[in-house]
Amino acid sequence: MARPLIGITSHLEPARWGDWVREASIVATPFLREVDRAGGLPVVLAPVHPRGIADLAERFDGFVFTTGAPVGAGAGGPESPSGDPDPDPRRDRFEIALVRAAMAAGRPFLAIERGVQVLNIAAGGTLLPDQEHGAPSRLADTDVTISATSALGRVLGDHASVRRAHGPGVNRVGAGLAPVAWDGSQAVEALEVAGHPFGVGVRWRPEEGGDRRLFETLVARAGS
């Protein structure tokens, strides 16, 4: 039986090969490793022109939306406190279009950290400003409460200790999404697409911990 094909989003940065420097699609190895260990076939997706989105949604069995710079103001994210330009507008456009296509096609996906920002904006929601803009992005342990009746709760239970960095949080929740996890201050820590086979976004970093259940569930749903 073929392994489910899982597309993993990337960002564009200059990379060096000897004396050559070229723009390259970059993705952190833990995302590839966790999808592989869960039984999926990981494929890095460059942020191509949105005209290719329909083909991706048709050919791939599932998706992982990865971490990175916050969604820029031009795509619906909060304004940078320093007035910096949007860091990666091509990626913003690509991922917003891709997550909309995945929702419409019923393709399973896991949206991580920046990914949950993309998901909420794609559904018409808004984000809170990053109160720690410019601070080091160190991961900190955070306890979250999870709705036991949600898809996330059926995977992780009603409580989890997770690792996450700072970043823009969820303000107004987008249409068709439901908040399903909260921290101690009742800030939203996870969103789900209502009625979707597995459309989950989390603010934390499951690829950096030892709990592989979210990746295993994604791959299992993608292969069913």
From TrEMBL:
Keywords: Glutamine amidotransferase, Transferase. Pfam families: Peptidase_C26. Residues 70-91 are annotated as: Disordered. It comes from the Bacteria. InterPro entries: Class_I_gatase-like, Peptidase_C26, PuuD-like. GO terms for biological process: polyamine catabolic process. GO terms for molecular function: gamma-glutamyl-gamma-aminobutyrate hydrolase activity; transferase activity. One of its GO terms (cellular component) is cytosol. This is Putative glutamine amidotransferase. It comes from Actinorugispora endophytica. The lineage of its organism: Bacteria, Bacillati, Actinomycetota, Actinomycetes, Streptosporangiales.
